[in-house]
Amino acid sequence: MSGATALSGGRRDSGIAAARQPALYGAAAIATLLFAWWLATAVPGLVPSRVLPSPLDVVARFAALIADPFSGATLFGHALVSLQRWGIGVLVAIGLGVPLGIALAWLPPLRAVVTPAFELLRYIPPFAWVPIAVLWFGASTTTQAVIVFIAAFPACIINTQLAVSGIDPILARAARTLGAGSATTLARVVLPVAAPTIFTGLRIAFSNGWMALVGAELVVGKQGLGFLISQGQINDSAATILVGMTTIGVLGTLIDIVLQRAQRLALPWRTDSVRPAE
Amino acid sequence: MVDATLKPSWRLPGAAPGADATLSFWRREPGRAQWLAIALVSLAAMFAAWWAVTRPEGLVSSLFLPPPIEVWEAFVRLWSGPYLGSTLGQHIGASLQIVIGGWLLAGLVGLPLGIAMGWWKRLRWIAFPIFQILRPVPPLAWIPLALLWLGIGNSARIFVVFIAAIVPWVMNSMQAVYSIDGLLVRAALTLGASDSQILTRVVCRTALPTLVAGARIALGNAWTTLVAAELLAATAGLGYIALNASRTLEMGILLVAMAIIGALGALFSIGMHLVTRWVAPWARAGVAA
Predict the structure, then answer these.
(1) Do B8 and B134 reside in the same domain of the chain?
(2) A63-266 placed in CATH 3.40.50.300
(3) Contact B261 A125 (CB under 8 A)
(4) Strands (DSSP E) found in A71-178
(5) Is residue B104 included in any domain, yes or no?
(6) Do A218 and B144 touch (CB under 8 A)?
(7) At residue B197, what are phi and psi to the nearest 5 degrees?
């Protein structure tokens, strides 16, 4: 980072050049960082490759992991297993969480019913459920999916509830005045207005689930990206760990980009009025 | 960490008092006493159901879910004698020491860095992309690397907690300083304030609620991450108790460990809310959460 600071000499920024400047600085910073990494590993005796392999080693390891199975599967195989567990957990969380969130926002007394249970459970982090999930479901896909579910479910409920209760009451009352019943108001007025905010909340659920899955796979399981990096640690291969971490990060980013695109395609109107809770 | 409550006090924004009167019971916001009564009944029903299904002749075996009394006995056992080489207090102390240490360390680095990134645009241009690249990697994914670098010890856990906590510290402080109303800064300039005076007396003061919110999120992340780190590599701590209890099938102990983890998480969150109210009483609750 310090190497790039020297670049901040220019004082004036004007016109088109100014618009490109931030990207230039960012690219320079990342390039400097990569170069420093390479330099640190290239100078013999500075940083042992056991601690930090050179970037070239990591790329070579990446190619090797794609071609040959390691710990039971290729990189794609591990990624596919992770994505599958994540998909199951998140879909169940959405399937249960969104309807429940709508019900909680629409029927206030129901909120009083679930609040004690919710308050008792909400501060227990998803990983604290790993030991008990292993006992309940064994070291299986179910266990991983359950942890994903636990991580994603609260975000689904809370954000759906915030979205539905945050809509302008005038809209619901106008529908009532025009003779719409509860069901019609919900389906034709409330949900379309709340949908973009709900979707934004679901994106948080997707990402929470992905993060939790990595942790669950570190502790139990025979396959998956989290398992891959823990195997890298056991085999003393920092390059494998770095490849795994990068894949996890890249897949997480890709998932979010796809979801953003989907949101723009499916719900092109924007009514975000409520800030989703992380 | 989830940080929005299913608040009982919610009502439709702009709804007139009494506007609910024409609605049915299910669509109406219950009054305070009514709300409390429903919540208490629900809580009691939950415990009754737990007790009922875990009776000796009940539906659920005690290996799957132990009866409430067994959990209480496990708590008493943990409380009164050492378990896995340390008393409960020592286990809690071991966890707290690391979570607070890593969180403070991240704050010492992240708070000034974030403020500087918000204040100087060139530093932001340089450092922000680096954080953008690191952010999608879950803090937990650093655990194997930390173990490889630092071995199984406190330093590996502090490192992972540090990674988990520094992102909210930096991002919130940067956001807070960056999004400050330019009018305030110009007003201070007009009144003859120097750059450093503006930074300390105007910018940091105005940004305080968001800075504290960042600290709160960082503490929540740190706690969550520590529990995971203790599940993987530790010789003391609450996560270590939980994992061990699950291996030895001591369900009571496992549930007690989970409950204490949750209770400490709740304490952190409530404590940080109190701190927010103390240092920045003008901040609206829940702003920039």
Answers:
(1) no
(2) no
(3) yes
(4) none
(5) yes
(6) yes
(7) -65, -40
